[in-house]
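#lab-general

N.A. 3:47 PM
ok so I finally got the sequence cleaned up, no stray characters, all 184 residues accounted for. can someone with queue access submit it? mine expired

B.Y. 3:52 PM
send it over

N.A. 3:53 PM
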Amino acid sequence: QQGACRILLPLRQVLIVRETLAQLSLSDRRFRGLVTLQSDAYWRLDAERRLIMLSRPLPTWAGPVEGRTLEELLAPRSDPAMVAELTQALDGAKPFRGLRLKGRTLAENASFALALSGEPILDREGRMSGWHGTVSDVTHSVAMQEALWVKKEAAELASSAKTRFMSQVSHELREPLNAILGFS
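B.Y. 4:20 PM
back already:
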């Protein structure tokens, strides 16, 4: 009986490893399913900051993205100063939130605005082994903010013009009345 147990012990370990791998595969499929349901794009970089995964295409790049850096994908159609901010954030090896990037889309040459957030991935020893984060399309909200700013500026100009007009009308009406009062 003990001999049979010794023979089956390695088989038990193989079965445990197989079950663990099956659970990891299931977990990975579930995660990828959740990522595709998000409105934001999920990205993951390796230790050399090359893309391992990008759940949605970026408006600046067509074609395969794996093995490229985020900067390579964004630089051709984005504001260079904003891409430099992204590079600086990744060089800093600290989490960042809401980093804004503006540019022109590849297809329609329309403007876009993206908000990037990311954080480093650390291995068991605490060394950085990559990055992961999200890209949110904030084009609509940025356009709304700009439209509100334009409306506010127009309202302030109208108010200022109204104040000047009222001042001028008041002066024009007071001047003849003062003359009449002076003669009387």
